[in-house]
Design brief:
alpha/beta; five-stranded parallel beta sheet; 7 helices; 52% helix; 12% strand; globular
């Protein structure tokens, strides 16, 4: 755990948090459960959208989509996703229009996903990182603000939204010509 992270611990204990939605596949189940416990100790409300256990094989896109849809439907909410690598579940979440899901591996990537990309969901790989790093990522994600006054970051996030709009127009046009 780095010194910068140690500096945010008092803020974690005092901060008001938005509604948090969490989900995982079977590979991320145990880490998800430990993260729920970690957040509960901080009195942070979490709604678990599955998976129900680590033994039953399930499909990560279902949970990525479920968390993404809840985050979009709930004002000022955030999401946490865990699968084996974090890759598949983050790809699935990012297919939902309006979602910016960052796959994070450490304090730095968690900081950047919020400060620069205004991510509303964080994803992690249970087979890639340990629980202590996962807790650090979640704490950092929940306490870091988007740098909306910076001259570059809002413009870049807006461009991401424009790509989503272009994709939607192309899909609409392709349906008209069928």
């Amino acid at each position: 755990i780095n010194a910068e992270y140690m500096g945010i611990i008092p803020f974690i204990m005092e901060a008001k948090f938005p509604k948090i939605f969490i989900g995982s596949d079977h590979a991320g189940f145990e880490m998800k459960e430990l993260l729920k416990q970690h957040l509960a100790e901080k009195k942070i409300e979490v709604e678990d959208l599955g998976a129900a256990d680590a033994k039953t094989s399930v499909d990560y896109p279902d949970y990525g989509k479920a968390v993404a849809q809840k985050v979009l439907a709930t004002k000022d909410s955030k999401g946490i996703l865990v699968c084996g690598t974090g890759i598949g579940i983050s790809i699935a979440a990012n297919k939902v229009k309006g979602i910016r899901c960052g796959l994070c591996h450490d304090y730095y990537t968690a900081t950047m996903c919020r400060e620069h990309n205004n991510c509303n969901i964080v994803a992690m790989g249970a087979r890639v990182i340990g629980i202590d790093i996962a807790k650090q990522i979640v704490d950092t994600f929940l306490t870091t603000k988007f740098l909306d006054s910076h001259p570059n970051h809002p413009r870049r996030v807006k461009k991401i939204g424009e790509i989503e709009e272009e994709k939607q127009k192309i899909q609409h046009l392709s349906l008209i010509h069928i």
